Amino acid sequence: MLNRKIILFCLLFLYGVAGVGTPVTDYSLFQMIVEHNSKVTSIESHIDQEIWNGDNPPEKFSGLFRADSRGRFRIDYSMPENQVVINDGKKLYWYYPADRLLYEIASHRDSGAPKLNPLEEYSKGLEVRYRVSNMGRTVYGFFSISDLYLLIDKQSGVTIHLWIDSFRGLVNRKVVTGRDGVEIIRETYEGYESIEGIYFPSRVEVLVRTPGGVTGNSTIYRRVRLNIPMDERIFNMQFPPDVKKKYLDEK
User: Fold this and answer.
1) CB-hemisphere CA count at 13 Å for 228?
2) Is the peptide bond before 80 cis (omega within 30 degrees of 0)?
3) Residue 213 above 60 pLDDT?
4) pTM to 2 decimals?
5) Residue 128 and residue 133: Cα distance in Å, rounded?
6) How far apart (Å, rounded) are the C-alpha atoms in residues 55 and 73?
């Protein structure tokens, strides 16, 4: 019981006293954590990325990353060469200006783009879709205390393990396992910094198990700006009329 009281005190301190009269459940505690992690509505940041696929050597990228809470993003890579990656909310485009080459990719594919909120997918229909359990407090890393939450998808049996900073309500790690217990996805969030009162990770790593092997990416954020206005033209780039268009699976 002491553990639950400490968690509740920390969450109420972070989010205010609204709803104190409502029953405290694992669902309500986790819902407050989800809301706390939704403070970022837009971001502009210089990023350094490593993207790897199976046993192949990692590819290194650097550029300007911009995104909003509608799921749209744009990355203007300057290294290893000029490339533009845009998700306009409907489709994903990967453009090579020097070659006038444009790849059109289904938006559900993993582009390696960082996420604004690691808990966004749980913001709606939480009680309908998942069984939520607070498994208690655990030591995470060096001298860091986290609360471990388990979210079990009622239909698929997929389990999401979430290590949440006990005092700041921030995501440290997220692991997704299948019904068979095999790990599918692992996300790690490190080096949180306060940017105008909002904590944001300075490094994010994502590993995904696929039929072809493990793929992943790590992203380091530099010179971060949060919750700034985003011009619509950022996500609606006009490509040259003579561009050569291909699809991701096209040889």
Assistant:
1) 12
2) yes
3) yes
4) 0.79
5) 14
6) 28
